[in-house]
Amino acid sequence: MACRVGVSAWAELFKECLLANNISGSAIAMANAQAPDEGFGVKNFDFVDPPTWDYPQYDPWIYDTSDLDTSVAGIPGQNMATPQGKLFNYHRVVKVGSTYYDPSYGVTTDDPDTYTATYVEGWFREFDHSGIPIAHWRPAQPVSDDPLVFTP
Predict the structure, then answer these.
(1) Tens-digit pLDDT string for the chain (152 aa)
(2) Which of 22, 72, 98, 143 has its CA 20 to 30 A from that of 122?
(3) How far is CA 119 from CA 18, 19, 56, 126, 142, in A?
């Protein structure tokens, strides 16, 4: 589901561009959801209603990955106006000083809370269905959601 191939490629490229311009002290940070079985989606995508899940006990995690329309125009990036790789278990960003740069999407922030509130469209959590982990999605709640954790 999430992009795992070359997860550091844009971050490494951006970091090397900084070094070529005598800007040192950058570090690649990883934007993580709050738990290993969680992930997030970067803006924009739509949740298709009604959702295909028939599991009210998982509310608000009621959307299946097939209920996501990632063709919606949003933050351009990854060499596409509407990038398809918007769903992540983790995502690399570059930190220089107190600024976080997301080289995949060309956005910056000095505050992880702002990054979460501004750029995270939805969250997923894996639930065990008879021994099979299945991702359930919910829309982001910018005011009440915990921010992504940025680790060096």
Answers:
(1) 443 445 677 788 888 888 899 988 778 777 776 666 788 888 888 999 898 877 788 888 899 888 998 888 888 877 777 777 788 877 888 888 888 888 888 888 888 788 888 888 898 888 888 888 888 899 988 777 777 777 76
(2) 98
(3) 24, 27, 27, 21, 9
For residue 43, the 8-state DSSP code is S
Per-residue b/e over 92-101, b at no fewer than 16 CB within 10 Å?
Answer: bbbbbeeebb
- 20: its two tokens: 């070529």
Of 96, 1, 13, whose CA–CA distance to 41 is shortest? 1
DSSP string, 47-99: E-SS-S---GGGTT--B-GGGEETTS--S-BTTBSS-S--EESEEEEEEETTE
